[in-house]
Amino acid sequence: MGGLLSELSKKLAERWLTLLVLPGALYLAVAATGHTLGQSAALDVGRLTHAISDTARAPQVTTVGGQVVLLAAILAGAAAAGLAAQSLGSVVERVALAADWGTWPWLFGELAERHVARRQRRWDAARAEYEALRLLERAPRPADRPRPRERHRAAHKCERISVERPERPTWSGDRIHATAVRLDRDVHVNLLVLWPHLWLVLPEEIRGEIGRARAALTRVAVLSGWALLYLPLTWWWWPAVPLAATLVVISARRLRTASDTYATLLEASVRLHLTDLADKLRIEEQPMGPPLGGAVMRRLSSPAPATEPAS
After folding, report:
1. 220, 87 in Cβ contact below 8 A?
2. According to the UniProt record, where is the region Disordered (predicted)?
């Protein structure tokens, strides 16, 4: 038991150091550099070196007690910055996935609704263009048929907006929502109702892959939180601008990739293992499709609560 607790504490310390302290220490270093140099001497390395030397020679730092206090303050500040980044990351993740955008406060909800309508119009136009090109491919004369590159370009233009018709204000939110849309259309299952039951019958390696994909999505959101933390530093130190901009671009790209990977794994898990859940529910063996999905949903769905007769 002692060995297990020791190993657990070691892993927790490693995660604390990797996720909070090291990124937080870098943030504190950038903040201290910006505070020392300011906008007028943003790249004055000599001034920074002189400031570090003066601080190192200060009486409070040369004593053992002072060094312990300084180290504790740095660790505490770095951990606090890491916690702040994680908190901002959870907000970024909620906004990026936008699962509950209909309940957002009035102003944000109104803006999101307009953005969804605008994305739907763009998607409808791109989809119409793609379908028109597909129709032209059946033209009797080869000269009237479009080049394959034109059709691929039209499909890519449509997917840049959303994989399925937009229902959320963000691409990542629509990508995950597209999984539920496809499964409802192709198999007639409600992913929200189905998933907790399916999770219990998935093989361990599949659950591990999905868990890692979900963790990667959370890490990308935390990276966005760091980008938001670096933005205020640009007010008094302009070199923080390219750093914050780089983090924003990288996190935006990785957020799309992570959400696409997570959504793909969700859909693949349902399509591959729905028959396993049906077997657990003692449903007669039948091929993957709407009949099987409908039978599973009827077995999993709870009846509506009975209403008491009016007296």
Report:
1. no
2. 288-311
94 burial level (CB within 10 Å; 0-12, 13-18, 19+): middle
Residue 209, helix vs strand vs coil: helix
Determine contact, residues 166/174, Cβ cutoff 8 Å.
yes
Burial 5-26 (b: 16+ CB within 10 A, else e): eeeeeeeeeeeeeebbbebbbe
Q: Which helix (H) or strand (E) holds 205?
A: helix 204-230
Q: How is residue 116 written in tokens?
A: 């969804």
% of the chain with per-residue pLDDT over 70: 86
Distance CA 145, CA 160 (A): 24
CA atoms within 13 A on the CB side of 170: 19
DSSP 165: S
Q: Please, are residues 120 and 166 in contact by the beta-carbon 8 Å criterion?
A: yes
Return the biggest CA–CA distance within the chain.
89
Query: Alpha-carbon distance 121 to 115, whole Å?
Result: 10
Q: How far is residue 150's CA from residue 270's CA, in Å, rounded to a whole number? A: 33
**pLDDT tens-digit readout, 63-114:** 777 777 777 888 888 888 888 999 999 999 999 999 888 888 889 989 999 9
Rounded Cα–Cα distance for residues 286 and 306 (Å): 33
Residue at token pair 């998933």: 195
Q: Report the distance separating Cα 133 and Cα 151, nearest Å.
A: 6
